[in-house]
Each structure stands twice: as structure tokens, then as C-alpha cells.
Design brief:
Layout: H1 8-28, H2 30-52, E1 64-71, E2 74-81, H3 98-105, H4 107-118
Antiparallel strand pairs: 1-2
Length: about 130
């Protein structure tokens, strides 16, 4: 006959193990992992835009918002603005429209980093 012995110590260890496994499952879930990477990527583009946009009053610069939506294998990151003229504001150094400048200069680097880090195909689309 086989006997199974349980003590309070082994039950506490089991509870800790269960908590650790729940935490690990959350950290490695495809949804949170890919969403986290996409959030890092769009925030990098946002920082680039904020550092390069021509500023007069700061209204346009403060109207740009990063957003990440979706889940699983389909996550979308976008940078949007609530100011209708924002896409036409110039980059302060090169006098290009800053969305075009960011799309040409920063977005390809971020896409390359994201594709390499996540091992996935990444697509960028500029929409006005």
C-alpha cells in the first residue's frame, strides 16, 4: 500500500508553486507579450515624433496619442492626433512633414527591431 503524506509546509509550497505558475502564464501569454512589444514600438515612434516636431505653442505635439489594440496574433499599434492639421506640420530640422519624416526615418528601425525581437512579420501603413 502506498501512503501519501501532506504537511502544512508542503501545502504552502504547493500554493506558492501555483501562484508562480499563474504569474508565469500571464507573462508568457501571446497576447500580453505581443501587445507589450507593440506598445514599446509605438512609444519609440511617439518619442521620435515628439523630439522632432516643429513646436510653436505645443498644441500639435500634445495632440499625438499612441494606442495599441487587438490581441493574440493580430495587434495594431497606431499613432493618432486630434488636430486636423497635425499631419502637415513640419519636422523642425529637415522641413519635411513630420509624419512622413518619422515614417521614413524611425518606423523602419522600429519595425526591424519588432520583427527581430518577436520573430514575426510586421507591416506599417501610413494613413492620413
Amino acid at each position: 500500500m502506498t501512503t501519501l503524506q501532506l504537511s502544512q509546509t508542503s501545502l504552502d509550497d504547493l500554493k506558492k508553486l501555483q501562484a508562480d505558475l499563474r504569474q508565469a502564464a500571464q507573462e508568457v501569454s501571446a497576447n500580453s507579450g505581443l501587445k507589450g512589444l507593440m506598445t514599446q514600438a509605438i512609444l519609440q515612434v511617439d518619442r521620435f515624433v515628439a523630439g522632432n516636431i516643429e513646436v510653436d505653442t505645443g498644441w500639435t505635439k500634445n495632440s499625438i496619442f499612441p494606442d495599441v489594440s487587438g490581441g493574440g496574433n493580430s495587434v495594431v499599434a497606431q499613432l493618432s492626433t486630434s488636430v486636423h492639421y497635425a499631419p502637415y506640420v513640419r519636422d523642425r530640422r529637415h522641413q519635411e512633414q513630420f509624419f512622413d519624416y518619422a515614417n521614413r526615418r524611425e518606423v523602419p528601425k522600429v519595425i526591424e527591431w519588432l520583427a527581430e525581437t518577436a520573430g514575426i512579420k510586421v507591416e506599417a501603413v501610413l494613413v492620413r
